[in-house]
TrEMBL record:
Any Pfam family matching the protein: YCII
Source domain of life: Bacteria
Source organism: Pseudonocardia petroleophila
Protein name from the UniProt record: YCII-related domain-containing protein
Family, as annotated: Belongs to the YciI family.
YCII-related domain ranges (all copies): 1-114
Length: 125
């Protein structure tokens, strides 16, 4: 089954990325996690995101496109990156989520992916 592990990070963690003193330790944790996912063969995709301040939110209202700088939600934790994995079940996905560096200070959200096989099983695809 395929799952998406979403790493939710705090403002401090986003700041660590660019900090000359704290950055190397920050990135070392992520590099080790990514290497473990890749070496195990469960990783199917990944990507990191720039800080929330770089985001743009788009809404369509009454046929008009409304564009706002910044993230959609004002929360303590924002999406910092994701890892798509293929594992036997939710328990295995949760094990990988617990190993994610964001779990120690931010949060990690895990969701099943709606794959082409899923859509085919529902008659939608």
């Amino acid at each position: 089954m395929q799952y998406l592990i979403m790493a939710m990070e705090t403002a401090d963690e986003f700041a660590e990325r660019e900090d000359p003193e704290r950055g190397p330790e920050y990135w070392a944790g992520w590099e080790a996690y990514l290497a473990a996912l890749a070496e195990s063969g469960v990783l199917t995709g990944t990507g990191g995101l720039h800080p929330p301040a770089t985001s743009t939110t788009v809404r369509l209202r009454d046929g008009q496109r409304l564009v706002h700088d910044g993230p959609f939600a004002e929360t303590k934790e924002q999406l910092g990156g994701y890892f798509a994995i293929e594992v036997p079940d939710l328990d295995a996905a949760l094990e990988w989520a617990a190993r994610c560096p964001a779990a120690a200070r931010g949060a990690v959200e895990v969701r099943p992916l709606m794959t082409p096989e899923y859509y085919a099983s529902t008659g939608a695809g």
